[in-house]
Design a protein that fits this description.
UPF0311, eight-stranded antiparallel barrel, globular, Porin, 172 residues, mainly beta, 1 helix
Length: 172
């Protein structure tokens, strides 16, 4: 039976989280994977012009982290990221997402802070997230009841290394 109206994706936000250089390798988790914790040191969440996200411009602040569980048997990093920030109007933003990244050569270069690490392209990696976003600004209360999916890539500019996501709203 065919689905009469499959879900649609609309690119509404762009998210960038700056990676800290210190990663804590906390060893093997009791279920087998290894825990790696990387601090986030800034970044942004911006709305895409012409979408429901238009007008959102938040700066992420230091204090968030990525609590990765790395499964060596599948070369997969299971993501658990939490970060926060403020808009230019002083409104609060909180972002939490789970997801996964199949590690490849580009990921290994980024995670080891190799000078050879370069910005990659969205869609180049098997890298997905399911962000939950909370915003205190009444104009963006709709995000609390919206399903999002993110597609990741690596970003490098000068000394800044970051994870970046195209964030899509799932609609009917």
């Amino acid at each position: 039976m065919a689905t009469p109206n499959p879900p649609k994706l609309s690119h509404v936000f762009h998210l960038r989280g700056h990676m800290g250089k210190d990663t804590i390798k906390a060893g093997q988790h009791r279920s087998g994977p290894h825990r790696h914790i990387t601090a986030l040191e800034g970044g942004f969440l911006r709305g895409i012009p012409g979408t429901r996200g238009e007008g959102l411009d938040a700066t992420l602040v230091t204090g968030g982290s990525d609590w990765i569980l790395f499964d060596e048997s599948t070369s997969t990093a299971h993501l658990d990221v939490r970060t926060q920030g403020r808009t230019k109007d002083g409104e609060c933003v909180y972002i939490h997402y789970n997801g996964y990244l199949r590690l490849d050569e580009a990921a290994e270069k980024f995670m080891s802070w190799s000078p050879a690490a370069k910005t990659t392209t969205f869609g180049e990696h098997h890298w997905w997230s399911a962000p939950n976003i909370e915003i205190s600004d009444p104009k963006f209360k709709w995000v609390a009841t919206t399903q999002f999916i993110g597609r990741g890539r690596w970003f490098r500019e000068g000394d800044v290394q970051a994870v970046e996501y195209e964030i899509f709203e799932v609609t009917h």
